[in-house]
Amino acid sequence: MSLRPALALLLAGALAAGSATAGKLTVVGTHLESDAGSFVVRVYQDADSWLSERWRTQKVVAVAGQRRDGTVTVELLLPPGEYALSVFQDVDNDGKLMRNFLGMPKEPAGLSNNLRPKLGPPKFRDAKFTIGEALVEQRIELR
């Protein structure tokens, strides 16, 4: 066997092993009122990056053609660990969550565990969940 096929087999095995340890996350955004813009899912790994522009992963899908009964579903593969999500409907497709002068979202938005903080900003510890090898689903109501 020459070196190239051997390297290809080694790489394929490494990729297969890596994907076997990834957990599947299904994010279901609910209460989308229109087909406008995009549905944005941002995945955060720790409290230091929480709700900043330093997300671990971002997935953006067009709402038009994806929305079914007011919901959009996105699937991600993530290594085992703790994560928290922020999601929003980017109605104007500018890549940013529009906020009012108090910092409150002006576009439909939500957080993992359907977190709705009463006073002060949301905490990572309240929004976090664990990914293992089993399927995890987060249903998040956008408001």
Task: Tell me what you see in this structure.
By secondary structure, the chain is an alpha+beta fold. The chain has one domain: Immunoglobulin-like. It contains two helices and eight strands, in the order αββββββαββ. Mean pLDDT is 88; it is low at 5-19.
Instruction: Profile the largest sheet.
Output: 5 strands, antiparallel
SS strand fraction: 25-35%
Number of domains: 1
What does the overall shape look like?
A: globular
Query: Which CATH architecture is right?
Result: Sandwich
The total count of strands amounts to 8
CATH topology: Immunoglobulin-like
Please give the radius of gyration in angstroms.
18 Å
Helical content (DSSP H or I, runs of 4+): 10-25%
Q: Please tally the helical runs, counting DSSP H or I stretches of 4 or more residues.
A: 2
Helix-strand pattern: HEEEEEEHEE
State mean pLDDT (0 to 100 scale): 88
Per CATH, the superfamily is Carboxypeptidase-like, regulatory domain
Structural class: alpha+beta
Terminal Cα span: 59 Å
